[in-house]
Design goal:
- There is one protein chain.
- This protein is 73% helix and 0% strand.
- The protein has 251 residues and is mainly alpha-helical.
């Protein structure tokens, strides 16, 4: 085991222990509290809030992946090429709008507080990296490989499913990785519209002047982001080796 993997495993173990037995860490977080303040967030279970946070991020990332990858596939086909500028503009809109503004617009549009507007904001915010990476992956395939697939008599659908997508998968996964990490941190603002995310721990700390709460919410999000980023990066490297692209630049 490398030193890096050892550090990641240790970070995961500490995170799991903290989420399951937060009181064990009271002496440490008490250093950041004022007299009379609780050292550990006490308005809900940190484990439940973390699972809910991850569930919202996972749902938004899956939806963004289906939509963005689907659009990228369409615009790389002959019949959809003319829609590339439109699709790129749509994907860019999600990134140009601040998530807070999207939330502010989504609440009255959906007539709902909580998870729904947060999912919409994360979905829009996660489109661009996946769309651009899928586009890059599908338009930079080795010409010799695609020519060979055509020479074998494969149909367009067969080339897409058996050649193009498998070869582009590491680049697509890099976009999903970026989108996931962005969503993981952005989801915290969902608590401003009553979504149950780790943002509620941070907001509770800000409202009560309890720095320990702010640290707890921030550290959980940060450790999750690093672990998920590294995990997906390792998966990309494995896919590149399996598809014989280990020499290509990493996404």
């Amino acid at each position: 085991m490398t030193a890096g993997n050892g550090v990641r495993l240790l970070a995961l173990a500490v995170l799991v222990l903290f989420l399951m037995q937060p009181e064990l860490f009271s002496p440490f977080f008490a250093l950041f509290t004022k007299p009379g303040q609780p050292a550990i967030y006490n308005q809900g279970g940190l484990l439940d809030i973390t699972f809910n946070h991850l569930g919202i991020v996972l749902a938004a990332t899956i939806a963004a992946t289906i939509a963005a990858a689907g659009l990228a596939i369409v615009v790389t086909r002959p019949f959809g090429a003319e829609f590339l500028p439109l699709c790129r503009s749509l994907a860019n809109i999600g990134q140009t709008f601040p998530p807070v503004a999207v939330l502010a617009l989504a609440v009255p549009a959906l007539n709902s507080f909580g998870t729904a507007p947060t999912l919409l904001a994360l979905f829009l915010y996660g489109l661009l990296p996946i769309f651009e990476n899928t586009l890059t992956g599908l338009t930079n395939l080795p010409a010799a490989v695609t020519d060979a697939a055509k020479g074998m008599g494969m149909t367009g659908w067969q080339r897409l499913m058996k050649v193009e997508l498998p070869l582009a998968l590491p680049v697509i996964l890099a976009g999903i990785r970026l989108s996931t990490v962005i969503s993981l941190s952005t989801a915290t603002i969902g608590s401003t519209v009553a979504a149950r995310t780790l943002g509620e721990v941070i907001i509770a700390g800000l409202l009560t002047g309890n720095t320990a709460f702010v640290l707890q919410g921030g550290l959980i999000v940060a450790v999750l982001a690093v672990l998920i980023y590294d995990g997906l990066s390792a998966l990309e490297r494995m896919l590149m080796v399996r598809t014989g692209q280990a020499g290509r630049a990493e996404g």
